[in-house]
Amino acid sequence: MPVTLRVEALPEQIVAGVAETEAGSEERSLTVIKVLKQSEILQIPSSVLTRTAITPEMLEKQFFYKLIIRDVKDVMQKKELIDAMQSVTVRNYTETGDLRWGIIFYDTAGSRVGGIYFNGIGKIGAVGSTPVSFNGKLFKWLDINFSKSFR
User: Fold this and answer.
1) What's the CA gap between 10 and 150, in Å, rounded?
2) Is residue 114 part of a domain?
3) What angle do CA 32, 3, 59 make, to 5 degrees?
4) Which single residue of 12, 24, 98, 103 could bond 53 by disulfide (Cβ 3.0 to 4.6 Å)?
5) By the 8 A CB rule, do 20 and 26 touch?
6) pLDDT of residue 34
7) Does some domain include residue 21?
8) Structural domain contains residue 60
9) Which domain holds residue 49?
10) Cα separation of 62 and 3, whole Å?
11) Residues 60, 119: contact at Cβ < 8 Å?
12) 0.85 exceeded by the pTM?
């Protein structure tokens, strides 16, 4: 089932949701929408070799770097983040690839909203546990803003 990330900027908050499209259908039904409060950015450098491809679960347990953004609405690059998230389109894919980046989102109550995971070049990954291919500017935003911090 194809998934789409939906992000909207409202005054003083950012809301996000995941929409799923039935196979062969253009109609999207929004399954989750939450006000985002906090996010965690996880990374395992591409230079780190592993015996198996890194899954979302492995990335969350074995990350090398973790950066916590306590309030996403106060991020200095808020406009760029929103634009990058709104630009994301995904398609179902056969595998997640070797994941190296992850963004975990939490709502205002501290409950996990979901996660987005990328391989080392940002072309394939997962939304939650669903393998997808990515288009858009979110990986580039991650790379530009955090790669130097994670070295």
Assistant:
1) 31
2) yes
3) 85
4) 98
5) no
6) 60
7) no
8) yes
9) 37-146
10) 26
11) no
12) no
